[in-house]
Amino acid sequence: MFRILAAVPGEQTVRDATADELPALLTRSGARVWVDLSAPIGEAETAIVRDVFKLHPLAIEDCFERRAHPKIDEYDGYLYLITHGLSAGATADSAEPVELDAFLGANYLVTHHADASRSVAAVIEQVTRTGIPLNQGPAAVLHAILDRQVDGLEAVLDNFEERIETLEDAVFARPRNDHIASLLSMKRNILELRRWTAKQREVLLRLGRREFALITAEDTLLFRDVHDHLVRINDLLEVFRDMLTSIQEAYLSVVSNRTNDIMRFLTLFSTIMMPLTVLTGIYGMNFDHMPELRSAHGYPLVLVGMLLIAGSMLLYFRHRGWLGQPPSVDEKAADEPPAAARRSAERSRRSSARREAVRP
Amino acid sequence: MFRILAAVPGEQTVRDATADELPALLTRSGARVWVDLSAPIGEAETAIVRDVFKLHPLAIEDCFERRAHPKIDEYDGYLYLITHGLSAGATADSAEPVELDAFLGANYLVTHHADASRSVAAVIEQVTRTGIPLNQGPAAVLHAILDRQVDGLEAVLDNFEERIETLEDAVFARPRNDHIASLLSMKRNILELRRWTAKQREVLLRLGRREFALITAEDTLLFRDVHDHLVRINDLLEVFRDMLTSIQEAYLSVVSNRTNDIMRFLTLFSTIMMPLTVLTGIYGMNFDHMPELRSAHGYPLVLVGMLLIAGSMLLYFRHRGWLGQPPSVDEKAADEPPAAARRSAERSRRSSARREAVRP
Amino acid sequence: MFRILAAVPGEQTVRDATADELPALLTRSGARVWVDLSAPIGEAETAIVRDVFKLHPLAIEDCFERRAHPKIDEYDGYLYLITHGLSAGATADSAEPVELDAFLGANYLVTHHADASRSVAAVIEQVTRTGIPLNQGPAAVLHAILDRQVDGLEAVLDNFEERIETLEDAVFARPRNDHIASLLSMKRNILELRRWTAKQREVLLRLGRREFALITAEDTLLFRDVHDHLVRINDLLEVFRDMLTSIQEAYLSVVSNRTNDIMRFLTLFSTIMMPLTVLTGIYGMNFDHMPELRSAHGYPLVLVGMLLIAGSMLLYFRHRGWLGQPPSVDEKAADEPPAAARRSAERSRRSSARREAVRP
Amino acid sequence: MFRILAAVPGEQTVRDATADELPALLTRSGARVWVDLSAPIGEAETAIVRDVFKLHPLAIEDCFERRAHPKIDEYDGYLYLITHGLSAGATADSAEPVELDAFLGANYLVTHHADASRSVAAVIEQVTRTGIPLNQGPAAVLHAILDRQVDGLEAVLDNFEERIETLEDAVFARPRNDHIASLLSMKRNILELRRWTAKQREVLLRLGRREFALITAEDTLLFRDVHDHLVRINDLLEVFRDMLTSIQEAYLSVVSNRTNDIMRFLTLFSTIMMPLTVLTGIYGMNFDHMPELRSAHGYPLVLVGMLLIAGSMLLYFRHRGWLGQPPSVDEKAADEPPAAARRSAERSRRSSARREAVRP
Amino acid sequence: MFRILAAVPGEQTVRDATADELPALLTRSGARVWVDLSAPIGEAETAIVRDVFKLHPLAIEDCFERRAHPKIDEYDGYLYLITHGLSAGATADSAEPVELDAFLGANYLVTHHADASRSVAAVIEQVTRTGIPLNQGPAAVLHAILDRQVDGLEAVLDNFEERIETLEDAVFARPRNDHIASLLSMKRNILELRRWTAKQREVLLRLGRREFALITAEDTLLFRDVHDHLVRINDLLEVFRDMLTSIQEAYLSVVSNRTNDIMRFLTLFSTIMMPLTVLTGIYGMNFDHMPELRSAHGYPLVLVGMLLIAGSMLLYFRHRGWLGQPPSVDEKAADEPPAAARRSAERSRRSSARREAVRP
């Protein structure tokens, strides 16, 4: 499937063109053409790239195959680049890249995407409505698509941040194996994202530093802007990864602390009860000659003695500070409210600040 | 909102100017102009940067938007740079950057800050009072602002150091989950600070190495000084981060050690009490033929036997060294006083040494 | 053992040649020769490389010895390179490299492998059947072999991914020391693989960047393609390694959590049973004057009291939240089904996506 | 306070000079002057550097302030460098740098140190006694000072090594929270030392590679020697840091192992005692019809039965291997003597080897 | 002590020369001289290097001192290099470097070693027997020595590998504190080895890349070969270090798992025994009105009830899966035999493969 959009000088609006018009359009001075190819790729589509644009067979092969990482290659008269965006439903749990191939010539742009691409659809909509940015040249169209790809990425970063904070709270509230599994899954997704955004950043660095004669000085400023966005995204992914690692370590600390609390409770209880058991055992013995047993005050005295033993044990433990922190399953509730409130307040502030910062 | 300060040769003091005077001032030989823009940004402010200074539209757009990281871009005839400072109330728990944009021309400086900026306010106050540093040129004004930003940063570093030391003591005294949460929050703030101070350092490195024709040799020395400060700040942030990681690991060790202590106490107590329980159980059995029960000395002998068992158990444990370290919740109190004192003494010494070292 | 294949212009098919024909073939214009040497290496084989091709004695020595890492050396008129593939039966548990030595001249390729090489065998089969790629030149033959080596690597990566996911599930289900041993063994294999694939990537980087006059511009594109594959493989090995490290840390968390569960169960049970023991002990004492013992309702009242104690203890623990998570050996079963299902679904999706991505 | 030493050709010995003689000395051919400034810095001292040597105001300001890190700056006709040494009483617990500023001209050296400097004092003593190295030029004096600074560093490294080994032994003998605190403190000091020795190494690298016209080829050889020392010191600091990290991890392992031992002991004891308790409980029941109670052999048989139960439990545990490693507080004592001896022997050998290696 | 070997053209064999003959030999065309100096260094030895070879005093000083790290310095007409080997008895526990200094001139080689050097001894033996490699020039002699040094290193690597594998097995069999101590010691030795082999690799890199006019193109090939060996050794040391780190982490996991097992056993046993204790307690109470006590079937029914309680507890635990993994001290024995066998098989295979790979 293909769609051809042409901005011809003298014509009011951008219009759709047929494959047959292409050769004429390409040689016409001032005309700009954007060909968008999407699955299924048939003979017609192949003919356009091979015969009309005369692109290098290896590049065409690369383009119609699924490749794993972003790159940019310079060919004679055009650039071939692979970039990635995220699909519409991408979340912290599922952040698969959607590949976009682009051939950028002096007066044309050829894009290809096997899957539906939100970015391309949005730019086609804009071009057909306003003519912008196709009438500013093919590099401007490419920039518009890449800019939207990056916006899609940022939405997923927000989801990551939210998920990480929920996880952090959950671990402090009550650590479960499930949290570790969740953490591993997010870590892996962040690792994957970093892998290709790092390469995409390099592609945009090259687009943004006047390396290619095809890109005008004005256009490099546009691409440098996208590059700056990607740098910030990479930095944030790095921060997220560090935070996940810290949370995984915190998990162990929280579990160890809880085990410590439970052990202390058991120890406390056992050391109070065991002497009482021994005492009752003593007066349960069947010796003939046990004077206490005959005394009328023996029984109440022993009961009082038991209370004294238990009480002095408790006092001893209190002195040691053991009673200060009863074992609590919901540690969160035991948290000083100010601390918890402060943390949550800081979070919302930081989160909103980040949002402002990243989205100009 | 905007304020225009002009240092005109022949005039005694720096004076405020209006927007209408600007074009004349900029062409007047020897005159130096500083325009400070702050929110709200209206048509008047936009007109100044667009029509009077004729700054690049992309740079203006960048300037009035909130960007995430410091950078420096060279344009034709002026430099555009973004730097960050910290707000007045910044602490180790909340260290949000305050952005400052600056356009530095041969005879003018345009600054913009969306939020109130302590650094800018202080320099304005100095300029209106003494004329310095505006009469030394716009680069000197820029340096004065950047220098004050860095001073603000150092105050927060002190807060970090204090908080980290308090936390370290608290963890050794009695580890709580709250400490881990606090540690994670500080780690995140340090991560954020490092992210942008590292980029700011690069900006100042470029300002300090005669890369730009606009900056005179004398001015590069000034900026190199700020750069040296930022290098030290970055180094300290690195040290703080390493210390927090070590404290997090220490937390786990301390908790494990406490669990070990409690387990030892429980084991000690149980192994003393359980044989006594069995002994009382034996003489509580109802067999008809138990000669001991009939003996007049049976009961006292059994009591003596119980004391002997408990005593020999204690001796055995003492021999093993189990009694040496009773479980104590306040480990700090159990610390050898000299060690604790030495640590605290070293700290105060180091802290004051650092303060001297960082603040020339 | 050796085999000589020659593509001579004018002849329909590639044909086998004898050692005696070699000198003539090498000087014949347009002829391309591929000599494949394999164990055992005797006088005949040595004579070919020494006397016919006049290769450097040090390179020949290197070639017939087993070397540990891939490299490329330029000699006068030919390149000598060592690359590695994996044997047919390689798995995540056993991924030994199979070495391949190659001498690439303008019109010849000499390969040597001590062990059977799947890649070489497959290319020989293709060449004898179709003439391709020998009739495209010796560099094309080399590319075909290297490309097949990389394909073999990718099959093992799939095995690694599968094993890692099985291991992750097993650790969450029930951590065993065996898993740690398995993890260590896989980590070591990944380490080894990374060691030589990183070096092999460098070899292909050099082949792909027009560094050598022997490699035409068109051929560099081919080698760059293999290089891109190796980059992705290296990235994946890095991801696998990170995943294994995360799983090892997760193991400790899961075990700690299980210990915590068991401790909680023991504490719960002990604290319910111990007061009951003390109570029965009290009424088992033999004091003469214990009024309760004489009452007709004493016994049933004590039984009711014991039930009340146990019940209120349980209520207390429930209030604390201790009963919420009974100790379960099969944590997996206790997992919320949606989480487990989500994880497994994500996995299969990711896995298939990766497969597509890596294999163009 | 200042002291001026002058080596004048034709004069036998180096002599002290006054501030008034300085201008004449500096212009006299072949004369070499060393001015050492130390606190307090008054008008006289400032006048010397400002008016006589005409040093750059910024450099003078830097010099009299306390700066945090070593650096070297080239000015017109002289070099300005900041280096650090350690104070006389520096140990592993307290290793504060002592700053030294130096201005090196063609025929003069100006040094400044706010605190007492062992290195400077030693070189002054040598110069006044023998004339060496001042009569070899100011660079030779600088070298002599820097060389002594490095010697001071090495003495502290020895202290670190000793302390680390003591700590390692202590952790294996009996882990205490105190050890972790000690470890954190040493880690922090090593971090600090590495921070400035790394920068000092760069300063000496630049002095040692003929970068500055002021330094003759012969002098660069001297500075390269100091550089080599600093490289080795940096390497050792790196090794120390790795060792401390390993010891911190070992701490956790040792504590976990001890907890394991104690738990095993408790489990062992409990599982032997609890069945005996149940048995005595059974025969303590008050049923009318319990035939065993009437038997004359009941009591001895039950006692025998209890012994048998305890014995078979012990045999079972022995079979399982539980008895092999009794819980011991002094793990060190339980260590195989040869292992401990071997370790200690190796240590003393290594230590002495290192000493030889580092101090030529 | 010194020994002088001379290969003179026209003479059949290499012969020993005296110090007096040296000047003549050095000027004789085609003659090659090797002077080996060893402790004790007296006036005669010093005279040779100072007066005959006229080596730089600083280099001579360096040579006769003990230095810590390998390096290479170019002087006018000769190279001075320091390299390290290992002594004959070096093992994984004790791998002290033996230093070798060498001065390489156009027609001479001067070597110096304070300790006995196996490599030098072996080459002297070969030279006196066959003349080779001295008659090929001094660089060939140097290569022969360096090559033997590397061979000695590889023998120690084998010892490391063996020790690491033994340790890994021991940790899985039964973790002891001793293992951690052993691990720390090996880690430290690997750290030390890496430190100087990394520097030695750089020395050989420089010798192997035609940087020095003294080294012919043919000789660089020889040194490049040694360099390749050192690269592989460095890689292996890195792998060993990673393995030791992984084993240290595995240790903690294994200990935690064992603690978990023991806890489970204790919990199991306690929860079975405690209800029985309570039951016997109930029927041991002395209430007058306890109808069950009067019944003839009371006693047997209670015994049956106790069995039922114990049995149902066991069934419950079995249902939960607690009985599946009894606490075993020898975890190794509990390992599935195939896994253990597989591991060991893989190991021997890998080990032999490595040996082949490293030793060409």
Explain the overall architecture.
Five copies of one chain form a homopentamer. The first copy, chain A, has 360 residues and is an alpha+beta fold. The first copy, chain A, contains eleven helices and seven strands. Chain A has helices at residues 22-27, 43-52, 57-64, 118-130, 138-173, 177-207, 217-282, 291-294, 298-320, 331-334, 337-358, and strands at 2-7, 15-17, 32-38, 71-75, 78-86, 97-105, 108-113. Chain A has a seven-stranded mixed sheet, with helices on both faces. Chain A is rod-shaped. Chains in contact: A-B, A-C, B-D, C-E, D-E. The interface between C and E is large, with 66 and 60 residues.
Question: Which keywords apply here?
Answer:
homopentamer; seven-stranded mixed β-sheet; 360 residues; 11 helices; rod-shaped; alpha+beta
Residue runs with pLDDT of under 50 for 5 or more positions of chain A: 326-340, 353-360
Give the helices and strands of chain A as they follow along the chain.
Answer: EEHEHHEEEEHHHHHHHH
Work out the largest interface and the residue count of each chain. C-E, 66 and 60 residues
Oligomer classification: homopentamer
Q: What is the distance, rounded to the nearest whole angstrom, between the alpha carbons of the first and last residues of chain A?
A: 35 Å
Helix- and strand-based class of chain A?
alpha+beta
What is the rounded Rg of chain A?
A: 35 Å
Average pLDDT value of chain A?
Answer: 84
Total count of helical runs of at least 4 residues of chain A: 11
Largest sheet of chain A: 7 strands, mixed
